[in-house]
Amino acid sequence: MLKFFFVLALLFAYASCRSVEEAKLRYQNTIRTASEAVEARGCLAHVCFALDTSGSVTKQQFFYGRDFILDITAILGNDRRTKFAAGQYGRRTYKIASMTGDVATFNTEVGFSPYRHDSQTSVGSGIVFCHSQLRRARKKAADANIVNKMVVIGDGRNTLGGDPIRRANNFRRKVGGEISTVSIGYPGKEGERILSEVAGENGGVFTVDDYDELSEKVEDLVAEICGISLDL
Prior knowledge:
Layout (H helix, E strand, L loop, with lengths): L1 H40 L3 E8 L6 H18 L6 E7 L3 E8 L2 H9 L11 H18 L6 E8 L9 H12 L2 E6 L4 H12 L5 E3 L3 H16 L6
Parallel strand pairs: 1-2, 1-4, 4-5, 5-6
Antiparallel strand pairs: 2-3
Helix pairs in contact: 1-2, 1-7, 2-3, 2-7, 4-5, 5-6
């Protein structure tokens, strides 16, 4: 009987590992397909990411958010006109990178951005950082049709600072851009409400907790930013 249960345990472990590997393979295929679509159809955009670095998200969840940024920029960077900026928010804002078209340097700075485990969270400070980055980039842009997109990544918990919803509405009014939110961690009802209202009527609200969800949400967010179908 002991041997039987040992074999079952091995089979379960094998199935679990295989499931993870299959999810990773699907994710890699998503990245490749989305990259080919952007290269073929173009994606003229300025994108700023605001990433939660407070203690209400775990280190693993922070890494999911950080990897999400790296994968989105790897895809959108296939259009060399697209530019990116990123900052962290916790008890204050930490700049990761100012708006740039240098994808390799941007991804290096994002990849080395640390998990700070701040004791408080000001979602609004992350929004203000991206508002400033996108406003300046819009003023310098040669093409008036460029998409100005903010992506707020976190659990929506706001324990410090001003009203993130008011600041999100201010960004939409003054810059004319849109916001998508990516839920990581365990936001609860209040966090979900804040993420939804920050995104507004036209922004997407995405949830990322594992590789299966990551694959689908990357595809959806790229299609939303670029306004294109990813089916070639």
